[in-house]
Amino acid sequence: MNGDGWLLTKDERQEWLDALLRDGKRLIAPVDDEGLTLFRAVSTAAEASLEDYGNARWSPKEHQFPNTEALFSYSFQGDDVLLEDTPPDDQEQVLFGVRPCDAAGLTRLDDIFLGDQTDPFYARRKEATTTISMACDKSRPECFCTAVGGSPGGTEGSDIQLVPLPGEEVSLLRTMTPKGDELVAGHSDSWKPAGPEDLAKSEDLRVAVEQQIEHAPLAPEWSAALEGTFDHPLWEAVGERCLGCGICAYVCPSCSCFDVTDQGNAYCGTRCRSWDSCTFAQFTLHASGHNPRPDQPARYRQRVMHKFAYFPLEHDDRSMCVGCGRCVALCPVGIDIHQSVRTAVSAGASGEGSS
Ligand code: SF4
Ligand code: SF4
What is the CA(307)–ligand 1 centre distance, in A? Predict the structure, then answer.
């Protein structure tokens, strides 16, 4: 939105972020939390931990779609039930240092929560959030954003993007949306304007990091073919190792499943929603005892199908997976969702094992 953007030193960046804090905004940044990098609210920009920052262990999803949140509280008063809304959290917040894959993952949540039926809790938080992404200056072994249409320099879901220019002490800052423009307004007057040569350097960096990622593409047009493997016996082999631990869903920037529970006693309580996972055995368990996904292969198949078949087929071929690689790196039994898709599509294409 702002042409070539600006070049910011680390000090200028911190001064700007600190000024946003003084304006009353909540600043959420990657911090070192006992050896793990996590997105947390900070009281000064200097707390952000960006040295050798690959990506956070958990995505920033929890600040847009909390792992547990109260929807309303209730109390019984005689024959009446009184309902009370949860006080809204309308504080403006800035998600800073979000990797491009995670910023793209947040847009998948938008598709779910701001689609045909808008979720008011999510919508309110979204309205109050501005996302500043940070382009990657190197890839990690598990990264495969380019295989699903993304890029280490992608701007989807970003209101502002920072690109650390190689060999220089400055980052290129560009705004992408009116929200981004608003966040720099009144601050950028003293910043050094960037030129086309700086944009060219950021493009060179994007290309160089893209070339580090060796994962083969997962073509969008595979969605229908993947869906066609639903009854293929390959899923037994692909999913039998899955433990149903749910780690993959919890660390994923785009997983959106939740459960709703009442927490309280005979007199009062709170209705909460909390993250859930389609790989949990109880996820689809009916009160009757029937479970339409009766075993782990069926549950793991659902995870793959939702990300790579059902969602893209309804959302212009956009994969629900943004290739952050967290589930690949953290699955305790080494299940690799990128490989699962390729195995399924190639088995389906060859007809191998199908009845
Ligand atoms: S992290 Fe691995 S074992 Fe755990 S539910 Fe996901 S695929 Fe299954
Ligand atoms: S499915 Fe795995 S690799 Fe894809 S976005 Fe989710 S956590 Fe990242």
Answer: 15
CA angle 92, 96, 100 (to 5 degrees): 120
Pairing verdict, β 68-77 and 268-275:
antiparallel
> Domains, the chain, ranges and CATH?
6-68+87-212 (3.40.640), 220-258+277-350 (no CATH)
Which protein residue's CA is at the shortest distance from atom 4 of ligand 1?
A: 245
Instruction: Please give the model's pTM, rounded to 2 decimal places.
Output: 0.95
**Does position 77 have pLDDT exceeding 80, yes or no?**
yes
- Per-residue pLDDT at 257 exceeds 70: yes
In this structure, how many other beta carbons lie within 10 angstroms of the beta carbon of residue 205? Answer: 21
Of the candidates 316, 281, 317, 323, the one whose C-alpha atom is nearest the C-alpha of residue 302 is 281
Of how many residues is the chain composed? Answer: 355
Q: Which ligand is nearest to the CA of 304?
A: 2
Mapping DSSP to helix (H, G, I), strand (E, B) and coil, where does residue 41 land?
Answer: strand
Q: What is the pLDDT of residues 167-223, one digit of tens each?
A: 899 999 999 999 999 999 999 999 999 999 999 999 999 999 999 999 999 988 899
User: 253 CB under 6 A from ligand 2?
Assistant: yes
Closest Cα to atom 8 of ligand 2: 324
pLDDT value of residue 353: 55
Instruction: Kindly give the distance from the C-alpha atom of residue 336 to the centroid of ligand 1, in angstroms, as a whole number.
Output: 9
CA distances from 25 to 18, 79, 160, 188 (A): 10, 43, 16, 18
- Structure token pair of residue 29: 């940044």
